[in-house]
Protein backbone atom coordinates (compact mmCIF):
# COMPACT_ATOMS: atom_id res chain seq x y z
CA UNK A 1 0.00 0.00 0.00
CA UNK A 2 2.80 2.38 0.89
CA UNK A 3 4.63 1.69 -2.36
CA UNK A 4 1.52 2.48 -4.38
CA UNK A 5 1.07 5.75 -2.50
CA UNK A 6 4.72 6.68 -3.07
CA UNK A 7 4.37 6.04 -6.81
CA UNK A 8 1.10 7.98 -6.91
CA UNK A 9 2.70 10.87 -5.02
CA UNK A 10 5.61 10.99 -7.46
CA UNK A 11 3.27 10.98 -10.46
CA UNK A 12 1.10 13.72 -8.97
CA UNK A 13 4.21 15.75 -8.11
CA UNK A 14 5.54 15.51 -11.67
CA UNK A 15 2.13 16.44 -13.04
CA UNK A 16 1.87 19.43 -10.71
CA UNK A 17 5.35 20.63 -11.65
CA UNK A 18 4.53 20.29 -15.35
CA UNK A 19 1.21 22.12 -15.09
CA UNK A 20 2.73 24.98 -13.11
CA UNK A 21 5.60 25.38 -15.58
CA UNK A 22 3.21 25.40 -18.54
CA UNK A 23 1.26 28.36 -17.18
CA UNK A 24 2.09 31.79 -18.50
CA UNK A 25 3.48 34.46 -16.21
CA UNK A 26 1.09 36.76 -14.41
CA UNK A 27 3.22 39.89 -14.63
CA UNK A 28 5.29 41.61 -17.27
CA UNK A 29 8.16 42.73 -15.09
CA UNK A 30 8.06 45.85 -12.96
CA UNK A 31 5.69 47.71 -15.27
CA UNK A 32 3.23 44.83 -15.13
CA UNK A 33 3.40 44.81 -11.36
CA UNK A 34 2.58 48.52 -11.17
CA UNK A 35 -0.03 48.95 -13.89
CA UNK A 36 -1.40 45.48 -14.48
CA UNK A 37 -1.57 44.35 -10.89
CA UNK A 38 -4.79 46.22 -10.12
CA UNK A 39 -6.57 44.74 -13.12
CA UNK A 40 -5.68 41.22 -12.10
CA UNK A 41 -6.77 41.82 -8.53
CA UNK A 42 -10.14 43.13 -9.66
CA UNK A 43 -10.69 40.16 -11.95
CA UNK A 44 -11.00 42.00 -15.25
CA UNK A 45 -8.89 39.41 -17.03
CA UNK A 46 -10.59 36.02 -17.20
CA UNK A 47 -8.65 32.88 -17.93
CA UNK A 48 -9.92 31.20 -21.10
CA UNK A 49 -9.16 28.02 -22.93
CA UNK A 50 -5.84 26.47 -22.10
CA UNK A 51 -5.17 28.88 -19.24
CA UNK A 52 -8.44 27.92 -17.57
CA UNK A 53 -7.66 24.23 -17.96
CA UNK A 54 -4.17 24.67 -16.51
CA UNK A 55 -5.56 26.68 -13.62
CA UNK A 56 -8.14 24.02 -12.77
CA UNK A 57 -5.60 21.23 -13.22
CA UNK A 58 -3.26 22.99 -10.79
CA UNK A 59 -5.95 23.15 -8.13
CA UNK A 60 -6.98 19.51 -8.63
CA UNK A 61 -3.40 18.23 -8.57
CA UNK A 62 -2.56 20.33 -5.51
CA UNK A 63 -5.55 18.91 -3.60
CA UNK A 64 -4.62 15.38 -4.66
CA UNK A 65 -1.03 16.01 -3.61
CA UNK A 66 -2.10 17.03 -0.10
CA UNK A 67 -4.56 14.16 0.25
CA UNK A 68 -2.04 11.53 -0.84
CA UNK A 69 0.63 13.07 1.40
CA UNK A 70 -1.71 12.93 4.41
CA UNK A 71 -2.70 9.35 3.56
CA UNK A 72 0.95 8.37 3.25
CA UNK A 73 1.76 9.95 6.61
CA UNK A 74 -1.16 8.07 8.16
CA UNK A 75 0.01 4.68 6.84
CA UNK A 76 3.65 5.21 7.82
Notes on the protein architecture:
With 76 residues, the chain is an all-alpha fold. It has one domain (2-75). Helix content is 80%, strand content 0%. The protein contains three helices and no strands. The protein has helices at residues 2-22, 29-42, 50-75. Helix 1 (2-22) packs antiparallel against helix 3 (50-75). The longest helix is centred in the last third of the chain and has 26 residues, at 50-75. The relative contact order is 0.18. The model has no long low-confidence stretch (mean pLDDT 82).
| Class from secondary-structure proportions | mainly alpha
- Report helical residue fraction: over 70%
Major sheet: size, sense and barrel closure?
A: none
- Counting DSSP H or I runs of 4 or more residues, the number of helices is 3
Q: Which spans have pLDDT < 50 for at least 5 consecutive residues?
A: none
Strand content: under 5%
Number of strands: 0
Mean pLDDT across residues = 82
Radius of gyration: 17 Å
Q: Shape from CA axes? A: elongated
Distance between the termini: 10 Å
Q: Could you give the order of the helices and strands?
A: HHH
The number of distinct structural domains comes to 1
Amino acid sequence: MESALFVLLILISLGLITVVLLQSGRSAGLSGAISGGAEQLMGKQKARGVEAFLSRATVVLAVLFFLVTIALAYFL
